Hints:
With 590 residues, chain A is α+β, with helices and mostly antiparallel strands. Chain A has helices at residues 7-71, 81-93, 131-138, 179-188, 213-216, 223-231, 267-318, 332-382, 388-419, 431-443, 466-482, 514-519, 536-547, and strands spanning 98-104, 110-113, 142-143, 147-148, 155-165, 168-178, 196-200, 206-209, 234-240, 246-253, 260-266, 426-430, 452-457, 461-465, 489-497, 500-507, 551-556, 563-570, 585-586. In chain A, the strands form 4 sheets. In chain A, strands 1, 2, 3, 4, 5 and 6 form a 6-stranded antiparallel sheet that branches.
Amino acid sequence: MNGPMPLRAYLLLLALATIVPVVAFGAVVGYFLIQEQRETFRRGAEERTLAVLTAIDNELAGSVSTLEALATLPSLDDGNLAAFRSRARRVLAVQPDWHNINLALPDGQQVMNLQVPAGKPLPNIGRLDGSFGQIRETGQPVVSDLAVGPVLKRWSFAVRVPVFREGSVRYVLSAGVRAESISRVVLAQGLPPDWVGVVVDRNGRIVARSYKSEETVGQLASTSLRGALEHSRSGWFAGATIEGAAVYTPFRRSDRSDWTFAMGIPAAAVDGAARRAAGLLAIGLLGALLLALVLAHVVGRRISAPISALASAAAAIGRGERVEVPATARIDEIRRLAGSLRESLEMLQLADRQKDEFLAMLSHELRNPLAAISTSTYLLEVAEPGSSDASEARAIIDRQTRHMARLVGDLLDINRINLGKLPLQRTRFDLAAAVSDVVRGWRQSERLEERDLSLTVEPCRLQGDRARIEQIIDNLIDNAIKFTSARGRIALSVSREAGTAVVRVTDNGIGLTREECDRVFELFAQGERTQGGLGLGLALVKRLAELHGGNVSVFSDGPGRGATIELRLPLDNELDQPAANSAGVVMGIG
Amino acid sequence: MIVLVEDQPDQRQALKMALQMEGYAVRVARNGQEALMLMAERPSRVVITDIFMPDMDGLELIAQIREQFPETKIISVSGGARHSQVDYLESSRLLGVHAALQKPFEVKDLLALVRQLIGRP
């Protein structure tokens, strides 16, 4: 993204950056959980399949046991079929699922059939299915495939057991069993109502089914089941019922009967959990996204509204309009921003006021000397040339012109320093000598009136612009004169203290309040009790001192108790300072 | 008889000389306090006063003279507003001065005003 985005977009991104990995992780975990759940389900279903199959095997085993017991009857030892027939009839009477018992030779030729009166000719049933061959081969009981009985014309199957006499199979004893018996076993398993349990014989024909049993017994099982049975004896596949419903099917073929039990479990029952989990995940994701959107919007608004308010306030300040900086913000940082903006506004307003006052002062301060000059020019016009009036007028013009020049010069200097364009003509010189020169100049000046200007010096080598240092001293004295009475005292001292040259200008003038002390070096700032002037002098002093790597500070015991201004300048390190024996020289005048 | 109130020595001196050359008797004061003392000694017919001075503001002096010496004519002179928001010349007019001059003014104008107020000396 190239352009700046709104805060809301960033918040939304932030929310997405948090949500997306969680969702991805959730999806992976969900996938594994679902797989696990499916596996568990599948194992459960397969176990259930085995249980049902075992129940069917048991049912068949019951028939086998009964037949085997019948096969041991001694009447078969000597072929007394009449006696056997009567015993068999009694057994058939107590087996509700059996519809017939017959006895055949190993090749399938029947010798007794309870459904056919004794003495009537009986057909050979050896070719009905492979069961006779199997018995001859294995000597083990066999369950036949499903067939429509030649007598009953109903779907049934036969359980056949070999009858051994003298070490070989003499007969095959069979019971015709109704397919319903197996259906009952399947129904008794209590499968869930939407599950379909089905028992299939070797031919893939349905022996029993828990759903629509009547219509489906004898039909071929679904193609998917028959296909699966071609490949293995047990397993799990996704297929369809004969009605076409999508199902998962666990199946297992019995080793004893060679029949298969399979279940059709609706795909929805298996996949439902997965679908529900996926659905929940999707809903959760959607909800989280929606929440993120709403929160991003709300929080973004809560953050950006006060910022926008501050921005328009700042813009209004920029246009110079009067504004209130909004104060209500619930976010600490923004509250601080508002505080800073409010402070800047106050400072801006203060600076603006000071500038206005400065301009008013400047106009006043320039008009005063102009008035004196203009009046003196008039005097020169009217006074007799060469008279004392004329020369006094000239002196006034001279002084006031110089005063104005100095004022304008200070202004220019301040401006140059502010712009960083005041070059220093650095030389090495003695500060004491420079201060003495300035003091000498002032002592010749009438402005000192009756003030006592004293000076104490110690030699101090400096490196700097001597003219500028003299300007500093000149301004300090000028300042002291402004704030002392005509008979006041002004004391200057120059000394070395811990590698620094210190100039102190102490007066016994009107003094300063603590607040004035703090502001006295600010440009345009002036004490309320000053007697005019622009307040440029001390501001210039401070800037010039700083240009020389020094500083200036003011001390006062309060209004009416005088003040001391202390100027500190770094000594010139490269030259050895004169020995400390040069004691201070007092050059005061009374 | 004129009392001239001005804190700036050169301007005070120059105006005093200009008025004296015209023949007026001039007494000078450096601030409002001194001016009131001079007036108390001997009231004068005209007071010319700067507005911004130490000790007593010119406006205060004007008010005092208006009260104590209602006969005295006042001319106020100002170098402009000390504080930007207020036009002090306007204020002095409201206080009842007879004329207000903005520095730098033509001395001839001031002399004409004085003549107008109290005639030739």
